[in-house]
Fold:
Amino acid sequence: MKFLVFSENLGSLSQMITYLREKGEVIGVGLEKSSSEASNFGASKLYSIKGDILSDSVAKLLEELFKKEGVDNIFLSSSILGREAAGILSVALGAGIVPEINEISFDGSKAKTKRFYLGGKTVLEEESQAKIFTVSPGISDAIKSDKKSEIFSIEAPQSKIKIVSRQSKKAEGSNIENAKIIVCIGRGLGKKEGIESVKPLVEAVHGEIAGSRPVCLDYQWLGEDRQIGLSGKKVRPAIYVGVGVSGQIQHIAGMRGSKIVIAINKDKTAPIFEEADYGLVGDLYQIIPKIVEKLS
Amino acid sequence: MVDIIVLIKQMPDLEQVKIDSNTREPMIKNVPKTVEILSEHAVEEAVRLKEKYKGKVTAILLGNEQSSAIMKKAFAIGADEGIIIDGYEEHNPANTARILASKIKEIKHDLVILGNQSADSITGLIPGMLSGILNEPLLGNAGKIEVTETTVKVTRILEEDNIEIESPLPSIVSISQEINEPRLPPVMQIMAAGRKPIKTEKIAPVVSKAVTLVSNKAPRSERKKLIFEDMDKGIPEVVKVLKEGMK
Ligand SMILES: Cc1cc2nc3c(=O)[nH]c(=O)nc-3n(C[C@H](O)[C@H](O)[C@H](O)COP(=O)(O)OP(=O)(O)OC[C@H]3O[C@@H](n4cnc5c(N)ncnc54)[C@H](O)[C@@H]3O)c2cc1C
Ligand SMILES: Nc1ncnc2c1ncn2[C@@H]1O[C@H](COP(=O)(O)O)[C@@H](O)[C@H]1O
Structure:
């Protein structure tokens, strides 16, 4: 089989290529700034887009490449841009689409897919003749291949939409997706200064700090690029440590792929304990210093 | 003046959805329906734009015969007219988009406002599909919307940066959750909303075979769930795991 794979995000692009290269030939499509790195994951070709992209121009570009390359399926990362382009593309090609998948296998041309549903509470298993899929971030780890992709520079067609200006975000340039150990703080910290009590733990385990939505978005204790969850990042570290995080379903959706989950929460009925391998019931301000002491 | 169509969806109150411990299936039947979270923000934004620029807000909901309570909520926030299309088919975004688009085509509008990704089904496909079917530009994931006589300008919130984008009217605008805080309508308005007429149209269900549902079950958690209340036992255990993970 032959797949066309698009993401504007290097991490998602390399994850998707890694995941799909076992199942068929992969042709990648990404941005110019990440193409040399993205060429290490085993795609046969890599199209590198020059300049600005918007969802309608990406849809048009993928439509053209779909026809030119004669691929069987198209995969787009489930980002804001990817989901929009996928919707437009499915109409243009009159093709079936399954969104937000986190697993796929093929039986002939029939695709068997899994995706989260009901806000992440359940998993839908579906079978379809769909040609287009949006892919939930973190479908696999990105693993380099010996095979280098040949890079082709390409321009996206003109968009109907005008870009007026661009503002970079209040972000800390974090890279929590690649962290081996993540310490994730929640509203249970009570105050921004509480971060100072958590930092020694982050340092002791050589990890990255991340947060729940209230912490990153509502209170801005951390940069927005450190938010884990349904509307934040999907992470799969070796160890996730949640401190003062209740574990609502929209948060779990972002950390479910973690290999080991440790939770510290003073409420023994907190839902995070249902999703934890190790749980400590108690006050984080008492527990963390003790862990740090024993680690050093 | 802006004439706005706002799309609202209903969803089961997710907090009340329990999982059957035998079948692992969600027990949805008797769970009350609420307005889908992003849709509520969409109505709020549509009404704010109307208050600012004058015009009319028409809400469209593809649901079932139980959807009128949700439409009343849209009225209470300030929607002027409401159309319920009875015939929603779950897990079929292509069908949802097709039905919504054919209704939208019948109504004169400058803007179509909707959520960027719904909180229950998390597909995020309706905005792009509508843009494709209606051939109107999509300004997606708006954190701010400004309208002139002939154009709409939106601050698009992306993962890495925010961009200001602009297109001619009519356009489709999907909104991000941060765009506003939906109001709590005063009791008088809620009462008045209850008396407002709703147009309901029934459509024949289409049985689509494009995608077949195999199962819908809660994932089985394979976590160890070793929960410690005694810190003298718990902390050494956690420290061991952390040290192992750091290697
Ligand atoms: C559409 C949608 C998308 C969303 N997306 C996301 C998302 O991407 N990411 C996300 O995280 N959320 C998301 N949410 C929000 C989510 O539903 C929860 O509201 C949020 O995750 C709760 O954050 P929290 O656990 O930090 O806070 P809380 O739920 O308030 O939990 C705080 C916890 O801290 C504990 N605690 C308090 N004090 C202490 C102490 N001293 N020591 C130890 N424990 C203590 C409490 O027992 C409690 O369990 C989304 C919601 C919606 C509707
Ligand atoms: N059945 C529906 N009726 C009306 N609006 C809908 C329906 N389904 C989705 N929408 C709108 O489309 C947005 C995105 O939904 P989705 O693309 O399904 O994630 C929602 O926030 C709603 O505004």
In short: The domain at 2-202 of chain B is CATH 3.40.50.620 (Rossmann fold). The CA atoms of residues 55 and 235 of chain B lie 62 Å apart. Chain B has a mean pLDDT of 94. The first helix of chain B runs from residue 37 to 53.
